[in-house]
Amino acid sequence: VAFMARSCLDVFRSQNKVDRQQGGWTCSAGRTRELRKYLNRPDLRPHFDERDMICKVKQDVWRWLQAPELQRRAAAREFGALNLSATVDFDSFRSHPLWMRGEQRASLGVKSTNCELLRSTPGRTRWSTQQWMAAGDAALAAAASPEEE
Length: 149
What we know:
By secondary structure, this protein is mainly α. 46% of the residues lie in helices and 5% in strands.
């Protein structure tokens, strides 16, 4: 699991270039649909302040619940002491050849990309997500079990 960490002010500025007619993405989706995903999960509620920006909510849940849980599982050798997570700084990608500066990203919309591989990726459904999770769980279980010779 990789968590992409970015300045919440930068995220706020970026996401509000979308849905400007509705007051920006924060108003049209961030404070409604996106936050609801966190509010509807009782296990997440103690780890964030619902008055914060959705970016901070996500960062707090990662910092105080998800990352420590993945570290606990790795330490407990539940997954063969595999490192299960990383927090990656958004700005660390600036030197990547596909990096686009802010003004170059101005024409991008929600879930758009300059990566050809991702453009061909099929849309995500509940069924495909379950399939993907099952494949990931199977791979982790295989990696954690001793190899048979």
